[in-house]
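quick one: FE3-S4 cluster bound model?
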Amino acid sequence: MIDHENLERSLERMDLSAAPPETEPDRQYYFIKKARALVAEQTARLGRTPTCCVVTFGCQMNARDSEKLSGILREAGFQSMESEEADLVVYNTCTVRDNANQRVYGRLGFVHSMKKKNPEKHVALCGCMMQEPSVIEKIQKSYRFVDLIFGTHNIFKFPELLCNMYESDRMIVDIWGQADRIVEDLPVERKYPFKSGINIMFGCDNFCSYCIVPYVRGRERSRRPEEILEEIGRLAGEGVKEVMLLGQNVNSYGKNLERPLTFAQLLQEVEKIPGIERIRFMTSHPKDLSDELIETMRDSQKICRHLHLPLQSGSTRILQAMNRRYTKEGYLALVEKIYSKIPDISLTTDIIVGFPGETKRDVEDTIDVIRRARFDNAFTFLYSRRTGTPAAAMEITASKEEIQENFDLVLKTVQDTAREQVARLTGQRQYALTEEVNNQTLRMVTGRLSNNMIVHYPGDASLVGKIVEVELTENRGFYFVGRRV
Ligand code: SAH
Ligand code: SF4
Ligand code: F3S
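yep, here:
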């Protein structure tokens, strides 16, 4: 990450009449400067500033990547807007389940009709879906109007690709098979002034048999702790109070660093940064969750009382076929250990229903774990076959109807237990970070508790970004209504 002033200083050094530098990030600074010139030209021609819109699909990792794209577009001089009417639309895609892909194709159909009416309009595609060769083929064949396609490993090259796009009338496709490095020091535009995600690692080495992420995000790479701590320190200086450390499996952070460091040790360092009041992280793989991490959470004043611990299935047989490397009993024992050391923690999870070979008996195991683990919330997904993953070759034996029935049953169990769980907090006093005004006329705001639950309470815009104490007076199922105390 680089701030605006330092970027300006770096841009001043760039000479557009010379060839672009070979080293990064200087090369991209050169192209940011060049993009500014292109945007200035466009502004003069149109008599207005060109607009841009970044549309994000998928997880927090993609959301963070979109902030990087937006930061670059802002520095290039675009006016950002929420609507896909914009002159430049960037879709940052996800391919974790097929419905994520279908949504992107739907948006492309829609944006094509707009492009026919606006000759200035450009459309760019990036993100996980673009790392799949079959997707690229399909776009090249059926969506010829797309101007630029790039992937997850060369997102830092966006300024250069943007310039290439504006100077060419052909579709530009630049996809890398893997990341050769982590490029630091590019601009970022944050969605919220008071909270921010921070990548601590990229990629994933776990190869759960159903999952496409290791193929589209590449091998696991940890950022150096100095870079992470420096970034968080800078964010704190800008008024950020809450950070979310991001990785597909944060519990294996640091293993491949020159000087290895555990995730718990990294958290202890983040804890020391003045101004940071809350620390969150996503996601934890149960197989790598250490006692050191549980103790660090227990002893911390800042780490939030929330742990997202994806279960996927409660059946040891299915877990094995999923290559998750823990058992039903192992998961339950871990949960009990966490509750015994951190009684006020809130556990949430992800569950997949309909994995190849899953029977009623497996689903009963999943339901048993849901009841016993007492989740405050669970995201339940229908299994989606991803080409190229080991599970894609496994046979699905259950019928569509059976799978839907199982899904409904799991969902109902999740909702019933979550409702019971959440009710335990009614009447408690807790601290909430106010995130947004939710109703001007009723003067209500929305805040988030340490355990990630939502609470609405009276207040106005002056509270946004502040941590306030609230009494949770009324439980509305999955959220609370409260009053300030
Ligand atoms: N790294 C994270 C998960 C990232 S994907 C972890 O392991 O915890 C987010 C969730 O999507 C997963 O937890 C899983 O529940 C779900 N998911 C992944 N691949 C899927 C597939 N092929 N079908 C259905 N759900 C899937
Ligand atoms: Fe996918 Fe498993 Fe990696 Fe999570 S840990 S991203 S589910 S392979
Ligand atoms: Fe989707 Fe890529 Fe995240 S596939 S879930 S956006 S890592």
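The longest strand covers residues 429-439.
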